[in-house]
Every structure is written in structure tokens, then in C-alpha cells.
Amino acid sequence: MSSAPVPSDPEIAAATFTAHLNQAITSELGQRRGWAVTRVDSLESIVHMHATREDGTVDEYHLRVRAHFYDEWPPQAIFVAPPKTPNGAWREPELTSKWLPHIENIWADSRFAYHTRYPYPDGHPAQLICCSKSLDYYLSNHTPTEGQRWRQGKQTIVALLTRVQEALQPPAYKGPLGDLDT
Question: Superkingdom of the source (predicted)?
């Protein structure tokens, strides 16, 4: 792993990403969790995941994963809203949207945090799935411990999907952040 993220060869990244994502979705874990995927292109997919509230209510979320730096670095990921029209684009939701989860950052060991708007070093605020299994963790000037660092060849997109899925369960998951379909 280089010191700063550098995009991977697109053909190699696409082939590795496709293979790892297919393994994740068809694995016992992926089947049990109900993960499904919508391909956007060879380096981007939408992973559909279910969240469960403490009262048992189930909510659906859509995680856009991008593999431009994969697999030397982890995939990028943010929550997105579905297209408003059949041929429309997946889009980043507004803060009042039901497509953003309300996740309380309850882990004392800093293994996961979710920020709807995080101030990146270049000054733009954006979503941050804050764990060392997501590329934006590294792009936002976080420094993992040796035990947290992404391990190419030992970890795959399953590490990110598993960490996000854990956060979409009680006690961390509290329901949708908003109630508007934006």
C-alpha cells in the first residue's frame, strides 16, 4: 500500500472489484443479510442493504461503492437515494432524506462512525463512512493503527459491507435520518 491513495489500473480494479462483489453477494453472509447489487458500470455499483430498528422495523438503504483505487485501497462508499425516474441517476440525498440512516456512533474502539457531512481537508463537506475499510477514511486525513489498516489481498469489499451492516442494526441504528424522499 502506497502512502497516499493512487487510482488503480482500471481494468485490474474492475475485474477484482467484480469478482469480490460477486463473492460478497452470493456468500452465505450476503444471502443471509439480503444484499443485492445494481451495477452502474465496471467500477461502480449500488449495494442494497436492510437496516433493522429496535422495534423490528426494516428499512432499505443503498450504498454506492466505487472501486477506482481497489484493491490496493478499500472501496469508496456513501449512501445514495434511488433514481426518481426509470432512467435516472442514483444521487446523494439531502440531509432531510429518508435515504440517510441515523446511526449513533456508539463504538468506543473507533471501529466505525458515520458523518452525514464531514469537513474534508479540501474544505468540502461530504458524507464519510468513517472506518478503515472505506477509502474516504484515508482521504479525510484519518490515520489507522497498524491493526486497522486495509490489507490488500487479505481484505475485500466484504470487510466494508460487514462493517456498514453492523452499524445498520441496534443499538447503533435509530431509523432514517429524515422522512422526505429526497
Answer: Bacteria
